[in-house]
Specification:
Layout (H helix, E strand, L loop, with lengths): L1 H17 L2 H4 L9 E7 L4 H19 L2 E7 L2 H9 L5 E4 L1 H7 L5 E9 L2 E2 L1 E2 L1 E6 L7 H7 L4 E4 L5 H13 L10 E4 L3 H9 L5 E5 H10 L8 E6 L3 E2 L2 E5 L4 H12 L1 H4 L1 H8 L9 E5 L6 H9 L7
Parallel strand pairs: 1-2, 1-3, 8-9, 8-10
Antiparallel strand pairs: 3-13, 4-5, 4-13, 4-14, 6-12, 7-10, 7-11
Helix pairs in contact: 1-4, 3-12, 4-5, 7-13
Length: 306
């Protein structure tokens, strides 16, 4: 059923963006008539639209063309839209980027940075205090009686990293727990644990838990963090490599100077997750920045089927 839903959503992406086909086509020099950018909309696509519409207007002014963001609540659909050339660019989580790069055709251009360096974040495994779990040793001892949820299948901090860690300590997520499921998003994973529908959840601390705390949806004391991962390089903004090379450089430059050229538009998006946009700016990123995650993904048996 999940595979069918991914296919259906990808088809909807194709149909919707296909309506802009004439403008999305590249001209003879490889420049699009209209720049289409895909973005994960999370649990609240309307909130993302409100935050990114000003940035679309900024890009439109800088590039001298119409720019439109297209939102999905599913990373596989976003990846498929890139591969099928229905969009030109996408904001991709590190793991979604790795998945997309399994087939040639795109390249990373920027990631969000702080004080001139790429931002990092952490994956967490957590529970609610009523479970009585205090350490991962407790989870290991009681796993057969516990339910576990990941976020999205293509999530880095909500799936790839915690799955790799659980495997490394001898807990096969598909066999060791009473039940393992996908909540669908980071917020859903956190709220499922908070409401006691699930015993143990996986998500990201800085980009999801802190956001829900700032929005007064979750209290810090509602969640007990059992494990925190090493640092993870932030999302990649990737573009198709069949676009005109000079145009790609122009797009990259527009991102790199966004914090200076239109800080108001820049900060609206940054504030969705980070509280300090004044210290942040887009920075260039290379594909090699995600090699450590590729290694983790390669170490997990049958990961594609999950």
């Amino acid at each position: 059923m999940k595979a069918f839903m991914h296919f259906l959503l990808a088809a909807l992406v194709t149909v919707t963006i296909g309506s802009c086909k004439n403008k999305a086509d590249l001209d003879a020099s490889g420049v699009p008539g209209k720049l289409l950018i895909g973005s994960y909309g999370g649990d609240n696509p309307a909130q993302y639209r409100t935050a990114l519409d000003p940035f679309a207007a900024y890009l439109s002014k800088k590039l001298g063309m119409e720019v439109e963001f297209f939102y999905t609540t599913d990373y596989p659909a976003l990846i498929e839209a890139m591969r099928s050339k229905k969009i030109h660019m996408a904001h991709l989580t590190p793991y979604a980027y790795i998945l997309a790069m399994q087939k040639p055709g795109l390249m990373p251009i920027v990631t969000l940075g702080i004080h001139g360096k790429a931002t990092i974040y952490h994956s967490i495994i957590f529970t609610n205090k009523k479970t009585g779990l205090k350490t991962m040793a407790d989870v290991k001892a009681r796993a057969k009686d516990l339910t576990l949820c990941f976020a999205d299948p293509a999530s880095t901090s909500g799936h790839l990293i915690p799955r790799g860690y659980l495997d490394s300590i001898g807990l096969d997520p598909d066999k060791a727990f009473k039940e393992t499921m996908f909540a669908g998003s980071h917020a859903a994973s956190i709220l499922s644990v908070k409401s006691e529908k699930v015993d143990v959840g996986c998500s990201t601390s800085e980009l999801a838990l802190d956001k829900l705390i700032r929005e007064h949806i979750v209290k810090r004391e509602d969640i007990v963090i059992l494990w925190t991962s090493p640092p993870i390089v932030n999302d990649a903004i990737a573009i198709r490599d069949d676009l005109n090379k000079d145009f790609i450089k122009k797009v990259q430059q527009a991102y790199l100077t966004a914090n200076r050229d239109d800080f108001e538009a820049f900060k609206k998006y940054v504030l969705l997750y980070w509280p300090n946009p004044q210290d942040m700016a887009y920075v260039s990123v290379q594909d090699s920045a995600y090699n450590s995650l590729r290694k983790i993904a390669g170490s997990i048996k049958d990961l594609k089927s999950k």
